[in-house]
Amino acid sequence: MIKVGVLGARGRVGVEVCRAVEAATDMELVAALDKDDSIEGLAGAEVVVDFTHPDVVMGNLEWAIGHGVHPVVGTTGFDEGRLETVRRWLAASPGTNCLIAPNFGIAAVLMMHFAQRAARYFESVEIVELHHPNKADAPSGTARRTAEIVAEARAEAGAARMPDATTTALDGARGADVEGVHVHAVRLSGLIAHQEVLLGGDGEILTIRHDTMSRSAFTPGVLLGVRRVREQPGLTVGLEPLLDL
Ligand SMILES: NC(=O)C1=CN([C@@H]2O[C@H](COP(=O)(O)OP(=O)(O)OC[C@H]3O[C@@H](n4cnc5c(N)ncnc54)[C@H](OP(=O)(O)O)[C@@H]3O)[C@@H](O)[C@H]2O)C=CC1
Ligand SMILES: O=C(O)C1=N[C@H](C(=O)O)C[C@H](O)C1
After folding, report:
1. Measured from the CB, is residue 14 less than 6 Å from ligand 2?
2. Over the stretch 88-141, which tens digit does the pLDDT of each residue have?
3. Which of 43, 47, 144, 244 is the most exposed place for a label (fewest CB within 10 A)?
C-alpha cells in the first residue's frame, strides 16, 4: 500500500483526489490537509499530492522534499526559476523524487503533445485558454507549458518569426507573449477548463481543442503519478514520460 497525503484536500480538485485515493486498492489516504492544518500532519506519508495555490506550493514542496516525501504536484505557477529551486532541494535530499504536471488529464496531455508535433508545419500559432472565474492564475499552467513546448518545437525546426503587422493595440489585446507565442485567457461562469491551440498556414487552419467536462478527469493521471513517482529519479515535469510520449 502506498501511503498518500493530500494538500488542498477540501479544494475543487483535492476532494476528487481524496475520493480516488480512497477507492484505489493499492493506496492508503494517511493525511487530508487543507489551509489551516499543520503540514507536520504529512509525517508518515510516502507521497504527497498538492493541489493548493501558486502562492503556497513552494513552501509545501520544501517541507515535503526535506522530509523525504515524494511530491506529485498539480498546483500551477511554475516557471524555470521555481523548477530550478525544486531541483536544488531534490539534490540535497537524495532518493526523493518529484513530479510536477500542469495538467493530469490524459486528453489534455495528448492535446499538448499534438500541438507540439504540429507546430513546425504552420506559420502561426496562438493559444486560447478558457477557465472558470475562480481560477487564481492566468495564463493557465497548461497554456503556459503548451506555449513553451510549441516555441521549442518551432525553434528546433528553424521556423521564422510569426507574421503579425499589429502596430497599435490596447494593452492586453494580443494576450500574453510566452516565448513568442500569444496566449489569451478567458474567465467565464459555466466553464471548467478548456483550451484551443490555433495553428494557421497557407489557406488552412488546424484547431486542436480540449475540454475538461469534470474534475474527475484529473484523477487517473494523479494516481499514475502516485504509483510511479518513487521510481522516476529527480524532477519530472509533465505526465508525458509516464505515458511514453
Ligand atoms: N495539474 C492539473 O491537472 C490541475 C491543476 N490545477 C491547479 O491546482 C490548483 C488548485 O486548484 P483548485 O482545486 O481548483 O483550487 P481550490 O481553491 O478549489 O483548492 C485549493 C485548496 O487548497 C487550500 N489551501 C490553500 N493554502 C493551503 C495550504 N497552505 N495548505 C493546504 N491547503 C491549502 C485552499 O483553501 P482556501 O480555499 O481556504 O484558500 C483550497 O481548499 C491551482 O493551481 C490549479 O490551477 C487544477 C486542476 C487541474
Ligand atoms: O485551475 C484550474 O481549474 C486548472 N488549472 C490547471 C492549469 O492552470 O492549467 C489545469 C487545468 O487547466 C485546470
Report:
1. no
2. 999 999 999 999 999 999 999 999 999 999 999 999 999 999 999 999 999 999
3. 244
- CATH class of the domain comprising 2-104+216-242: alpha beta
pTM of this structure: 0.97
φ, ψ of residue 97 in degrees (nearest 5): -120, 165
Q: Which residues line ligand 1 (CB under 6 A)?
A: 7-8, 10-14, 33-35, 51-54, 56, 74-76, 101-104, 141, 218
Q: Give the tens place of pLDDT for each residue, 49-79.
A: 999 999 999 999 999 999 999 999 999 999 9
Q: Please name the residues in contact with 167: beta carbons below 8 A apart, sequence gap of 6 or more.
A: none
169 exposure class (CB count in 10 Å sphere: 0-12, 13-18, 19+): exposed
Between CA 22 and CA 127 the distance in angstroms is 36
Catalytic: 3? Answer: no
State the complex-level ipTM: 0.99
For the residues 171-176, what does the mean pLDDT come to? 97
**Count of CB atoms situated within 10 Å of the CB of 123:** 13
Closest CA to 151 of 197, 94, 202: 197
Whether residue 207 contacts residue 196, with contact meaning beta carbons closer than 8 Å, is answered with: yes
Question: Strands across the sheet with 235-237, in order?
Answer: 27-33, 2-7, 47-50, 70-73, 98-100, 235-237
Looking at domain 106-213, what is its CATH homologous superfamily?
Answer: Dihydrodipicolinate Reductase; domain 2 (3.30.360.10)
